[in-house]
Design brief:
- The structure is a single chain.
- The chain is an alpha/beta fold.
- It contains 14 helices and 20 strands.
- The protein has helices at residues 42-53, 91-105, 125-128, 133-148, 178-203, 211-225, 234-239, 243-249, 306-321, 366-379, 393-399, 411-424, 458-470, 502-510; strands spanning 2-7, 18-24, 35-37, 64-68, 77-85, 112-116, 165-170, 228-232, 257-263, 275-286, 326-336, 348-350, 356-358, 384-389, 404-408, 428-430, 448-449, 475-479, 485-486, 496-497.
- The strands form four sheets. The protein has an eight-stranded mixed β-sheet, with helices on both faces. Strands 1, 2, 3, 4, 5, 6 and 7 form a seven-stranded mixed β-sheet that branches. Strands 12-13-17 form a three-stranded mixed β-sheet.
- It is elongated and about 75 Å long.
- The protein starts with a strand and ends with a helix.
Length: 514
Amino acid sequence: MDTKLLFQDATGFSTPMLAVFAVDIATGKDADALPALLSTSDAVTSATEKVMASGEFKATLGETVLLHAPNGLKAERLLIVGLGKAKSLSMDEIRKGAGIAVRAAKPLGVREIAIAFPEDQALSDEHLENLPCLLMSRELVEGAEVAEIDYDTYRSDRKDRSVRALTVIAKESEKSTRAEIQEGFEVGLIVAGAQNFTRSLVNEPGNVLTPTVLGERAAAMCREVGLKCEVYSTKKLHELKMGAFWAVAKGSSEPPALIVMTYEPEGGVAKGAPVMGLVGKGITFDTGGISIKPADGMEKMKYDMAGAGAMIGAMRAIAQLKPKVKVIGVVCSAENMPDGAAFKPGDVVTTMSGKTIEIVNTDAEGRLVLADGLHYAKTLGCTHLINAATLTGACVVALGLVNAGLFSNDDATCEKFQDGLKVSGEKFWRLPCTDDYKDQIKSQIADMRNTGKTRFGGATTAAMLLKEFAGDTPWVHLDIAGCAWNEENTPWLPYGPSGIAVRSIVEWVRSYSA
């Protein structure tokens, strides 16, 4: 989508469709809805006067009204998009509202649209406190760009319903400066582009996106944005003595890929500055191995590399945003297959760190590749670690499809991540990862076992294994199993890969940039 920013009055902009936002400014628990436009344009107010006063439009989030040939406007259509209650208006509603506008255009055959930037004069100071114009601009662009793509790539009867051009129309004011709106717009394009890159990887079927191909696409991305990238395979795993990673990989005819992406800030790294390590689980297809999964739903296991996809996408954004901190991305990619050479329940594997793991269930493979990936990142000099993985069904049982799981061994590091969620808009819920659970992964014949002794607290027992390999290094673990795939269409997002964690990881890294 060709996305542009213009500073002018939306009234005089010629477009097939202009979208404006509206909120419900009614107060009181039982008060009737009182919709109000986030626009001070006399022409827009006049064109919408009747519908706004009719009582039919409540401005609830996702509610829209389409007006044809609006008087006083050059736009052919005027779309009013509800964002919900003004008192609870947040960045997330701005992002969703932009997505709603783009998604509404597609079935109408509208290929070019414009969105009027919310005007601060239409909002009270109370509401503006949490809505700085830089972030509003960023979230609007992110919402629109992410909403536009439909993942029906392989359909032979695929119809092109893409919105090819978007113009964001803004007005300067004392509180909404041109420079801040422009900066937010540019950051939004970068972050949305990274999220969409991740989604394109996660959407690929396992027969297309093998570990080797994932490495090739990561390397191509790195060349495009100026990152250093090294892609290794079986020989390197043996050299590094990555016994846990190799145990998972050896059951497949497809060779593994160890992908290392490095971002160096301009001017080098200051002495004592943190080095951020981003580690992703890249299982391009997961059968469960010898502990094979049920056939029902197994086709979705192509998304088991969503953690790796998030790290690759985050590295893309980091290269373009240029934070003043060194970042190393490590992706451990393999297939988990039930070949005759596959690892088995009862096996004991020796990790790169020298610690041993008893294999109880071969479907608990993600924590094995991450164990070696986390240790490797530390050997590369990383002082802070974050990993992402579609790791456990237990996390989905605990948190459903709304929140992803968040674990950490360090409160300050975790708080930095949680602070970034106010900007990213993604939902992560912190779960316990304390030594009370350590007994669950104790083994009689090895240093630890790869699943808990009971099925209870499965997301935490998986995190406990990873914690052993993070050691004393400040570490955050994201279990994104329940949120990496949108199970249904919403007014602001299509069915398919979500690209979750890209935005949050980027904010976490930027928070360390001095």
